[in-house]
Specification:
Elements lengths: L8 E3 L7 H7 L5 E3 L2 H9 L5 E3 L4 H15 L5 E6 L8 H14 L4 E6 L5 H4 L5 E4 L10 H14 L4 E2 L8 E3 L2 H4 L3 H16 L1 H4 L10 E3 L13 E8 L2 E8 L5 E6 L7 E4 L5 E3 L4 E6 L4 E6 L2
């Protein structure tokens, strides 16, 4: 696998006309079509774009012949397929596309979007990273994405998954024009990106192997599969621990988190500084509907 610490925070719906605005908001990647104007714009912005390539091997070879000198100037990723399981795309053809790109650019990262994690084994040799593409609207539960990430990890491990955020190695939003179509949407999106960039070094750290124990203490406590409504992951760097916890249900809830022995007696919310005491090894945290809490040990 590519040995890279790069953690993409990107978006679909990008093109040469909005890439500068996208970068200024704090995104470091974007999915754009493979053409000269997009490549040149990515290079001028020193932006690590994800180039959407032709799905036909012969067309791909012609495109790479045309743009190879430009592509050699940057550090691009390649979006090699879009939900191939849904479109019954040939496994062999997917692997051909991967081989063509790797022959030209051995260190390049490739990724593809996948909706159903069950199809990943068929396309495992067709991409480096698999972007879990579950939209929990209008009728699917919020835990659909995290459950799919867990299932996908059984096939290829967590180190090869991208999504919006459950043990993933990258985040891509869908889609930039829709997110920023209103002034308030742009303000909210910029705030989210500031927060993600503020914890970028943590996002590059893998999750701890051992899951943290979560005890739900509210009446509203389960997701649709009967699992605890709150999901948590633990990260550690510089002798400091972080928790990222998500309420996956659309109502208020409260959880008690079993903090590992030897951790600090007080934790803080990473962005607001709100304090959370540890009592008898446990920390009690309230969650608003669908809220994410990022907690870090106090020093």
């Amino acid at each position: 696998m590519p040995g890279s610490n790069f953690f993409p925070i990107g978006t679909y719906g990008a093109n040469s006309t909005n890439l500068e605005e996208i970068k200024n908001l704090g995104l470091n990647s974007a999915v754009v079509g493979l053409n000269r104007v997009n490549i040149e714009k990515c290079l001028s912005l020193n932006m690590r774009c994800t180039l959407s390539v032709p799905r036909d091997p012969e067309r791909l070879i012609r495109a790479l012949d045309t743009f190879e000198s430009l592509l050699q100037q940057g550090n691009f990723s390649y979006y090699v397929n879009d939900e191939p399981g849904i479109h019954s795309f040939s496994e062999g053809q997917a692997e051909d596309i991967q081989r063509i790109i790797k022959k030209r650019f051995p260190n390049a990262v490739t990724n593809m979007a996948i909706v159903h994690p069950q199809v990943i084994p068929f396309y495992e040799k067709g991409a480096d990273y698999f972007m879990l593409d579950q939209y929990p609207v209008p009728n699917m539960p919020m835990s659909w994405l995290s459950d799919s990430m867990d299932e996908a990890a059984l096939h290829v491990g967590r180190g090869r998954l991208q999504s919006v955020i459950h043990g993933s190695r990258g985040i891509y939003f869908f889609t930039y024009p829709s997110i920023t179509s209103t002034p308030q949407g742009k303000v909210d999106f910029a705030r989210l990106l500031r927060r993600l960039n503020g914890m970028r070094s943590w996002l590059q750290v893998g999750n701890a192997e051992q899951d943290i124990a979560v005890r739900m203490i509210s009446k509203n406590r389960f997701d649709p599969r009967g699992n605890p409504a709150v999901h948590c992951a633990t990260k550690e760097q510089y002798n400091t621990k972080m928790l990222i916890c998500t309420n996956t249900i659309r109502t208020h809830t409260e959880a008690e988190l079993d903090i590992a022995a030897g951790s600090k007696d007080t934790w803080q919310e990473y962005f607001t500084g709100e304090s959370y005491p540890v009592v008898d090894g446990n920390m009690r945290v309230r969650f608003a509907p669908l809220e994410v809490r990022v907690l870090i040990e106090s020093h």
